[in-house]
């Protein structure tokens, strides 16, 4: 199989041809040159800036059709499509005074890598820097500030993202261009990623099986790695954070350098925290954790192809909190604890053909998870190894049609070495084929696609039949056809409408199929069901956006119907003093949405007022509510941005008041959660003193020291509150 892949790639590379240069001039509405405009070709991973005369220049480019993006903080960004089919191409553009205050990023998570205003599908985008400015201790906490995204937490160390009420194996995570596999079925198995070396995140809220296959039933989190340095340049930075509540710190150092053809970057980070303190002044025993993270990337590009290799290793040691007991500020996790070693290697290749291209992605993910009950001997020791591949052929543009054909696959093995088994030794194989096309005219676009997937799961027989820990061997095949169709139009100037209908699916995970034993986190005896069917859903979305120079508003609404929703239910029996629960299926529905506005009043151009409201309701077909549905949330932000002379720029002051409403729509395993409100303050800026460049930020989260328990906290059952007041200081030096 590998030899076939290599032969295909060599054959494709032989079809590429030629190279081209690109130059142009950027002016304003008065035809005056605009310097320091960021000009980028995202598909070629290159960027430059205009000089004092507004000129820019690229050389040794591949021939073909690409997206070009012009960005300047004082002007609306410009996104265009250019065709490079001769030795030198000239492309001039004119910028207009800013009507919006959001950069229209290129969305990598979508099919055709369009800027958001060109996308048929609504995608939320946030830089990691913006999330960090909110003072979150972990990446999962930062994600929960994005409308429509929440966080199932176990203290501060474990967080699982929730998109519109769906989580676990129903939310797919992509990093370094490959799908992350880390035993995400477990309640106490966190995201497993550090924000170290990640530039931004894109959130698809809704079924994305057309692009990603199984497990994208509820949505996708797509993490983009930090960009390489500009050609013929290098840079370094050192970041240090301190968290008052946990007496914790985060250290990160990065170095990157680029020539015309080669790119290199390396980054390392260390994150350590003591037990977190509640607003009542008590520390939650064993909520401490330590995390070591390292990343390296090497890229090469020329006029024929580009290739980027990335490798990430993450070592996480965390305590499993169960009570408020001994008060200590040690940072060494006690028992019970987890040790998780994750490794991700990816290779992204692009071959530029005659007005078309081929992308070939390969990924290897290793997740070694150990759990220690009361000694250094791991009772649970799982080793999950995954190899995946993704081929896409972008056909030449025909009239106004853009079309992609793709093949994706995955080979996965799970092996156990400990005394206890959560799931048996198993092998999983996926194969999917897809086709999608987009037709654009004027300010309209239609996109549609079809996909077929097959998944095979085979497990080994283990244990003695009739006893706890017995796993009967299974050999299952799951298949699914999925489709999507979407329409985007500009009803009038500054008013955009998006309509999307898409289906998705999820094959049952190993825990749902094979469980047979006591789940220590919930003190119940769980029994799997090897006869479970695919979860299959259809979701309809509508998105409305209106924006002018000083006012923006959006409204998102969705309805999601899921056939064969998998859930756990009491069986009416008792084994070894533990109630027995079994996995069954029923149809379910989720509905809700998000609305928000951004006011930028004139003449107070420094002031930004933002409000968002989000809501989701989930029910089974018998009227019972689904578990882990986040409460309705209303967030108001007041932010001021300004410069102070030449040496202090990008200064910001912000206040965020977040209200989480009471949650009375609960499942049979949950209790109601009262409402609560939190006030967060933040300040920061960029300094340039004596040629020393650095950023400083300060956050005061839960400044009023409110005692509260989130509905999605797994410590709620024990009556343990969430974190109290937390002051976060950050210094970031740029060299």
Summarize the structure.
It is built from five helices and 40 strands.
Q: CATH superfamily assignment of the largest domain?
A: TonB-dependent receptor, beta-barrel domain
- What fraction of the residues are assigned to beta strands by DSSP? over 45%
Alpha carbon gyration radius: 26 Å
Which architecture name of the largest domain does CATH use?
Beta Barrel
**CATH class category name of the largest domain:** Mainly Beta
List the domain count as a whole number: 2
Mean pLDDT: 89
Shape: globular
**Ends: how far apart?**
46 Å
- Proportion of residues in helical segments: under 10%
Helix count, DSSP H or I runs of 4 or more residues: 5
Structural class: mainly beta
Could you name the key traits of this structure?
735 residues, mainly beta, 5-stranded mixed sheet, 40 strands, Immunoglobulin-like, disordered N terminus, Maltoporin, Chain A, 57% strand, 2 domains, 22-stranded antiparallel beta barrel, globular
Plain-language structure description:
The chain has 735 residues and is mainly beta. It has two domains: 97 residues, Immunoglobulin-like, CATH 2.60.40.1120; 603 residues, Maltoporin, Chain A. It is 4% helix and 57% strand. It contains five helices and 40 strands. Strand 33 and strand 34 form a beta hairpin. The radius of gyration is 26 Å and the shape is globular.
Topology at a glance:
Layout: H1 2-15, E1 19-27, E2 38-41, E3 46-49, E4 55-62, E5 64-72, E6 75-84, E7 88-90, E8 93-94, E9 123-127, H2 128-132, H3 139-143, E10 149-154, E11 158-163, E12 166-167, E13 171-175, E14 178-179, E15 198-205, H4 209-212, E16 219-225, E17 233-243, E18 248-258, E19 262-273, E20 289-301, E21 305-319, E22 337-353, E23 356-372, E24 380-394, E25 401-416, E26 426-441, E27 444-459, E28 475-492, E29 495-506, H5 510-514, E30 516-519, E31 524-527, E32 535-547, E33 551-575, E34 578-599, E35 607-620, E36 633-644, E37 648-660, E38 676-689, E39 692-701, E40 726-734
């Amino acid at each position: 199989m590998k030899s076939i892949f290599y032969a295909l790639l060599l054959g494709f590379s032989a079809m590429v041809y030629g190279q081209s240069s690109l130059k142009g001039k950027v002016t304003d509405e008065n035809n005056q040159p605009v310097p320091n405009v960021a000009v980028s070709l995202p598909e070629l991973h290159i960027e430059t800036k205009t000089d004092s005369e507004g000129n820019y220049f690229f050389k040794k480019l591949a021939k073909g059709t690409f997206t070009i993006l012009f960005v300047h903080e004082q002007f609306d960004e410009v996104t265009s499509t250019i065709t490079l089919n001769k030795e030198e191409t000239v492309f001039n553009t004119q910028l207009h005074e800013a009507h919006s205050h959001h950069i229209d990023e290129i969305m990598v998570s979508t099919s055709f890598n369009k800027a958001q205003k060109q996308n048929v599908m609504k995608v939320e985008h946030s830089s990691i820097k913006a999330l960090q400015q909110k003072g979150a201790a972990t990446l999962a906490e930062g994600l929960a500030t994005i409308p429509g995204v929440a966080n199932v937490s176990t203290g501060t160390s474990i967080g699982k993202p929730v998109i519109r009420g769906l989580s676990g194996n129903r939310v797919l995570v992509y990093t370094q261009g490959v799908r992350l596999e880390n035993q995400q079925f477990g309640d106490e198995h966190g995201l497993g990623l550090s924000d170290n070396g990640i530039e931004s995140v894109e959130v698809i809220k809704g079924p994305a099986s057309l692009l990603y296959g199984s497990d994208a039933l509820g949505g996708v989190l797509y993490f983009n790695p930090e960009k390489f340095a500009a050609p013929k340049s290098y840079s370094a930075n050192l970041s240090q954070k301190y968290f008052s509540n946990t007496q914790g710190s985060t250290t990160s150092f990065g170095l990157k350098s680029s020539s015309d053809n080669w790119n290199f970057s390396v980054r390392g980070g260390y994150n350590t925290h003591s037990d977190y303190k509640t607003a009542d002044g008590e520390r939650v025993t064993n909520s401490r954790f330590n995390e070591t993270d390292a990343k390296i990337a090497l890229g090469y590009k020329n006029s024929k192809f580009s290739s980027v290799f990335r490798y990430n290793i993450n070592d996480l040691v965390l305590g499993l909190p169960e009570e408020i007991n001994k008060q200590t500020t040690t940072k060494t996790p006690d028992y019970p604890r987890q040790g998780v070693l994750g490794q991700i290697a990816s290779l992204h290749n692009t071959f530029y053909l005659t007005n078309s291209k081929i992308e070939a992605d390969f990924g290897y993910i290793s997740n070694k998870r150990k759990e220690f009950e009361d000694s250094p001997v791991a009772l649970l020791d799982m080793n999950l190894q995954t190899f995946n591949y993704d081929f896409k052929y972008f056909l030449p543009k025909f009239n106004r049609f853009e079309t992609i054909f793709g093949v994706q696959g995955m080979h996965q093995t799970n092996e156990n070495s400990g005394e206890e088994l959560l799931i048996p030794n198993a092998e999983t194989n996926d194969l999917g084929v897809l086709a999608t096309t987009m037709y654009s005219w004027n300010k309209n676009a239609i996109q549609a696609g079809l996909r077929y997937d097959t998944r095979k799961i085979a497990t080994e027989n283990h244990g003695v039949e009739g006893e706890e820990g017995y796993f009967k061997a299974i050999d299952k095949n799951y298949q699914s056809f999925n489709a999507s169709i979407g329409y985007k139009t500009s009803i009038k100037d500054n008013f955009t409408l998006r309509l999307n209908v898409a289906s998705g699916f999820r094959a049952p995970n190993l825990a749902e199929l094979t469980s047979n034993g006591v789940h220590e986190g919930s003190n119940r005896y769980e029994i799997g069901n090897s006869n479970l069917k695919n979860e299959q859903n259809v979701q309809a979305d509508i998105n409305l956006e209106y924006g002018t120079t000083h006012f923006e508003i959006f409204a998102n609404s969705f309805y999601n119907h899921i056939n064969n929703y998998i859930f756990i239910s009491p069986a009416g029996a008792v084994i070894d003093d533990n109630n027995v629960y079994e996995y069954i299926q029923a149809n379910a529905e989720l509905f809700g949405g998000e609305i928000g506005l951004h006011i930028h009043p004139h003449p107070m151009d420094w002031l930004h007022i933002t409000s968002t409201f989000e809501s989701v309701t989930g029910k089974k077909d018998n009227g019972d509510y689904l578990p882990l549905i986040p409460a309705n949330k209303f967030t108001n932000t007041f932010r001021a941005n300004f410069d102070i002379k030449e040496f202090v720029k990008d200064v910001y002051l912000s206040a965020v008041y977040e209200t989480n409403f009471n949650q009375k729509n609960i499942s049979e395993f949950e209790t109601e959660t009262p409402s609560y409100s939190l006030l967060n303050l933040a300040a920061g800026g960029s300094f340039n003193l004596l040629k020393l460049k650095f950023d400083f930020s300060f956050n005061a989260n839960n400044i009023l020291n409110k005692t509260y328990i989130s509905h999605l906290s797994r410590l709620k059952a024990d009556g343990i509150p969430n974190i109290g007041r937390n002051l976060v200081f950050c210094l970031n030096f740029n060299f």
